[in-house]
Automatic annotation (TrEMBL):
It is found in: Cell membrane. It holds the Pfam family DUF3817. InterPro entries: DUF3817_TM. Signal peptide: none annotated. The keyword Membrane applies. It comes from the Bacteria. Keywords: Cell membrane, Membrane, Transmembrane, Transmembrane helix. One of its GO terms (cellular component) is plasma membrane. The chain crosses the membrane at residues 12-30, 36-57. Residues 4-92 form the DUF3817 domain. This is Membrane protein. It comes from Sorangium cellulosum (strain So ce56). It is a multi-pass membrane protein.
Amino acid sequence: MSALRTLRVVGFLEGLSFLVLLTVAMPLKYIFGLPIAVRIAGSAHGLFFLLFISALFRAATERDWPRRRSLMALLASLVPGGTFALDRTLKREIEGDAGTAPHG
């Protein structure tokens, strides 16, 4: 799988896990007294965040992204829903690559 496609998949999972942590697990902990929800969702989110950082490093290195672009992608992972916005730019970049690929 290409570096950009990997980053898209991992970014989706990281973003989804972040939203689940904030909107499901945190209320379960603080409203219903179930701290296990945060432990499980938080662990999953932590794993996906580390995978995201790894995929981001791979994509930025292979694509020779400017530091600013890499930093913006990293910042997107820190904002709830940010990786979904990042996904749109990655999708356009992949589509642009497909348009310039040799046919044959």
